[in-house]
Amino acid sequence: MSANQSLLHLPEEAALCRDPEDTNDSATSRNLAIAWINNCWTKHTACSKSALKASWIPRRLLRIKRVGPSGTVVKLIDRNQIEGQPAYVALSHRWGNSDVITLKSATRAELEAGLPLDRLPTTFRDAIRVCKWFDLEYLWIDSLCIIQDSPADWLRESHTMKAVYNHAFFTIAAGAGASDAGLFVNRNPLAVMVPQVETSWHNIPNRRYCIVDDRLWLRDVDQAPLSQRAWVVQERFLSSRILFFGATQMFYECCESSVCESFPGGRAKCELGWQPKKLDHRDTTPMKAWYAAARAYSEANLTRYSDKIVALAGVAEMCQERLQDKYIVGLWKKRFIAQLCWEAYPQGHDRPDPCIAPTWSWLSINGSIKFDERFELCGQPFLQILQVHVDLLDEGAPTGQIRSAYLRLKCSLKPASWHQVTKHGKMDFRRYQLSCDGIDYTDYSADSDHRFWTNVDIIPTTQILDTPVFLMPVTRVKYGIRTEQVIALVLQRRTSGTCEYERIGHITVGPAVAEKLFMQRQQELQTLSGVLEGILQYLSLSDDSAWTRIPQQEIVLV
């Protein structure tokens, strides 16, 4: 066995893939998919049952219409032409060849008249076949249901993504390739079968085990080409049910189940490398689901940076309903102080210009981030939030695009400067350290529990390295039973002589730093004045009084 495999005891009634076929375009796969979704529909209380009797349908749908004994066309239908609210399926896919037909002003009449299947890419044709498995005649595909050359239509429809995917009976995810790659694959049946062995284990004789690939779900679903698209993070999060067509087999995910052709009856989630990403999943909470979605979204790719806010708006809208909280450009009002302490992880991304989000929001950078869920806030914050200003592009879309945003704060600012340690790599947190009060903190970041850990949002340019920066203490935190630490943001003045600042980094300061400084100064100076100086430096960053001694001032953080 490899390092990514483990033995799992199999009871006699265990559901495993017994006789896989050399393709998932088969009656066996079809019946399995139908069984998964029917089981969810009839037995899963946590899964939404609003989809089949939806109170809402998209503005446009594709109607799958049979023509003659074996022909099929798809017609673009406006919802005012549809009686009632029929069930529909949504497609999550990667756009492929630019020659593929899309809904535009010039093609609208053709699509409304009806398009033969041979005009559609393979993935769309396969999705229509899957709809037929369930006798469903309506399908939603973004490229064929949103007018691609109308900015107004695109903006209006992008604000309905929460409803589109949440109300769909299920979502088909084309995981393995682009729109011309198709859903169905030819495969080696052995790639789907789960190897079994009979062996003794410790003091238990002759039991049957299967060899489980611990990274199956992670590799074939979470890291699939489709899952690297930022828009798809939202589509997966919002969908009640997802039928995922991977590189070798089908996977199915809902709020209570995660199954695949290898394990059609399901296994423990951790055994397949799976983590809950759905808001209503029984193994998570709304805030944990938000953190997971934000992390996955930040790691995914966007073709257009200008979509950064709107491509997450549906997730934010749904979380806002569950959390009963106010959304503020990637952060939440009730947890605003703690969430200001997000980290670029790994550090050193880029911040596009012009930026579509304020620098205090993680949406301002291109790259992965994390929120530390482990720490508890201790005592009062070091700053006061006097005003949160967000100028929305559309007042009716509070989770959507913005014109501008800023914070007016009353806070302390401690002057500092960057110090670049070239022996460390660009992604190493030790590469960009700070000097403060004439002290170089480079050597005090190795202790993972009590550290001076500098984390940069964007890779500092030569200009930034030569520019004074400021440490703005935010709060004191505690990790379980560990010693308390101070979290501060690294700011840079936007324009000389103004009170406007930008966030460019984040630091964590622990008491071990101060202790080492004290010992260093005592050894270097060996005088009473040296000891006194060491005591002052001990207090310089890790003690509340060090920050509160600095006169507070009002600033604007943009």
TrEMBL record:
InterPro entries cross-referenced by the UniProt entry: HET
Domain Heterokaryon incompatibility: start-end pairs: 88-235
Alphabetized PANTHER family for the sequence: DOMAIN PROTEIN, PUTATIVE-RELATED, TOL
Protein name: Heterokaryon incompatibility domain-containing protein
Protein species of origin: Knufia fluminis
Organismal lineage: Eukaryota, Fungi, Dikarya, Ascomycota, Pezizomycotina
